[in-house]
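Supplementary Methods. Inverse-folding protocol.

Structures were first reduced to a discrete structure-token string of length 342. This string, shown here, constituted the complete conditioning input.
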């Protein structure tokens, strides 16, 4: 963190990016919804293809048709429910107590060197529950939002705010994947994969009949098979990757750290390098230094931190995640405890 010395803090320049987005007009905001509308359109078309073209026009056995539709709608409901929760759940915003007052910001600007700036931030943050630091061992400060970043929080340039436990910003849901909706996002990927696999498997027998000419050719059934297989192939790797991250208690931003390790080492003398790669590195703890597994508490505890401690609700898209998104237990600081979520 570095600010120019000997001048007043430019409050207008550091106004939230969200305010600048408002001035861009409704056109930009509408375009952000195009990926969501595309997904909704594909789901709507697949419903027509499976229910009308396949189940009613092609399947002749009544019992088989009923079983097809019952399981299909059960998976579809969970799929759409998870997707809705992922898209429309509000992002986790940083509480007001982390915002640096204007007087403190002016003191930081008037500081004569970076060491003095660091001491001012450390003094302000001493009552805040933060254990991670920047590469130069200072408190993590966001110049755009004018706040001390809680552990695992990062600034999202699309949303224009700092977000609690930010994993990444996903254009397909037009939302940040973060502490508040990470469970929904994983369930969305899982149910989407199950949906695609079920649809593909259900259409395979009729694909053979189409090729052999035993039933009339139906474009929707043929296309439904290839589209479901294509999406299933894409989803299986993405779903598996995020299950892997959950079990290790990491995030996408944290996982990218290994790619930029050498970049930070080669440019560690330059302040701007900290600002560019701050979000893409292994968390650095105040005591203990860098540790990519610093938040890992064991696979079961890591899973429960996201999905909760009630197994009956693990696969239901309702909020059950433990904690508040601000304080996270560390393996070498305190053992995991259910009371942490209270």
């Amino acid at each position: 963190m570095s600010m120019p010395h000997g001048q007043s803090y430019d409050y207008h320049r550091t106004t939230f990016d969200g305010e600048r987005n408002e001035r861009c007009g409704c056109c930009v905001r509408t375009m952000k919804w195009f990926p969501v509308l595309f997904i909704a359109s594909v789901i709507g078309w697949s419903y027509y293809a499976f229910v009308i073209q396949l189940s009613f026009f092609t399947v002749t056995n009544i019992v088989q048709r009923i079983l097809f539709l019952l399981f299909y709608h059960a998976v579809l409901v969970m799929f759409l429910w998870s997707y809705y929760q992922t898209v429309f759940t509000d992002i986790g915003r940083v509480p007001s107590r982390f915002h640096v007052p204007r007087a403190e910001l002016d003191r930081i600007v008037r500081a004569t060197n970076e060491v003095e700036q660091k001491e001012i931030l450390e003094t302000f943050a001493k009552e805040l529950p933060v254990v991670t630091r920047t590469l130069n061992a200072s408190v993590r400060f966001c110049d755009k939002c004018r706040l001390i970043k809680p552990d695992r929080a990062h600034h999202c340039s699309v949303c224009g705010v700092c977000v609690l436990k930010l994993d990444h910003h996903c254009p397909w849901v037009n939302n940040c994947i973060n502490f508040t909706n990470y469970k929904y996002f994983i369930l969305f990927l899982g149910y989407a994969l199950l949906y695609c696999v079920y649809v593909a498997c259900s259409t395979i027998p009729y694909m053979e009949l189409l090729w052999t000419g035993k039933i009339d050719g139906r474009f929707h059934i043929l296309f439904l098979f290839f589209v479901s297989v294509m999406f299933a192939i894409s989803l299986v790797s993405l779903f598996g990757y995020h299950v892997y991250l959950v079990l290790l208690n990491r995030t996408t931003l944290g996982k990218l750290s290994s790619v930029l390790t050498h970049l930070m080492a080669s440019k560690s003398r330059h302040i701007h390098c900290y600002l560019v790669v701050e979000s893409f590195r292994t968390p650095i703890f105040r005591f203990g230094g860098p540790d990519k597994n610093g938040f890992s508490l064991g696979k079961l505890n890591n899973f429960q931190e996201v999905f909760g401690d009630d197994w009956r609700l693990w696969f239901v898209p309702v909020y059950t995640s433990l904690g508040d998104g601000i304080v996270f237990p560390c393996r070498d600081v305190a053992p995991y405890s259910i009371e942490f979520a209270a």
